[in-house]
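Lecture 7 notes: from sequence to structure.

We start with a single chain of 346 residues. Read the sequence below before looking at the structure.
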Amino acid sequence: MSSGSVVIGGQGENDQSVPPPATRISAENEETFSVRVAKFHSQMREAYLELRGRTEADAKVEVRAETTARVAKRPVKEGQQVKPGDLLCVLDRGAREARVLQANALLAQAQLDFEAADQLSGKGFAANNRVAALKAARDAAQAELREAEIELERTEIRSPVEGVVESPMVEMGTILSAGQTCATVVDPNPMLAIGTISETNIGKVYIGQPAEVKLVTGQSVRGTVRYIAPSADPDTRTFRVEVLIPNEDAKVLDGVTALTRLKLAAQKAHFMSPAYLTLNDSGIVGLRGVDENNRVVFYPVEVIGGDRDGVWLTGLPDTATIIVVGQDYVSAGKQVDPVFESLEVN
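Now the structure, written as tokens:
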């Protein structure tokens, strides 16, 4: 002080002195942060919706007995191809043939009685009510005969569809009750790929939609959507979807694990590394980019697919300059010094 110089705390007395703290902080805030950026261009992407499920035969019929009897013959074997009407099991006829013969004899007698009474009635020698009673007896005999014939026919169990006999079949000598299975016939053509779709994606599926089905066996086949469930499963909130697969050569087997990919409409998207993704202060997933004034902008994005090489995103402009290094150290609106990659990313 004796020199006449007054020193204020935090300030120097010449141009080379350290600036005060407030000035230093302000200067630091005005410094631009360098970030590495790359330019990305949108591409037309053919998107797919994936369903995991299994294959299922369109026609799988358990052929059941309609009467109770012992299995007397089994004309087919497991794995054999059958056509509609082919015999699968023959049951012991027992007294059924005798009942048919008895019903035939009763019908013949009832027919004779009715015809004789009808002739006498025409000549005035028989009452009309007697003729009507004999006619009713004749009709009842016809019905009893038909019932006996149907019961006899039920001893022959035939395939209602074309297909392959599935193992196991009923054993010879087994007593089948009405409703028990003689054999199961599987028609492998066409085959179905069954899967489920969430309620958020069901609007993207339509009847006739092309589909690609990849089986766990390594096979890859094509089909079309045949059925969409009108209501969701109450537990999973998913909808059943069936894809019809032509299978003339029967190479696609029933019950195989399958991954079905439904082709969606092509859309513009960007492909890049998932490492560029970040979160804003509200926790929204997106990317930080740089505008024409070198200020940081935040783009909320949606991941619509991906593989081991990167992810497909929507929500960006057709051409966007994205921060690929340093995106977590800047915020929207901040001025930055962008340093471009040596090559543009397409």
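The longest strand covers residues 181-198. Keep this in mind for problem set 3.
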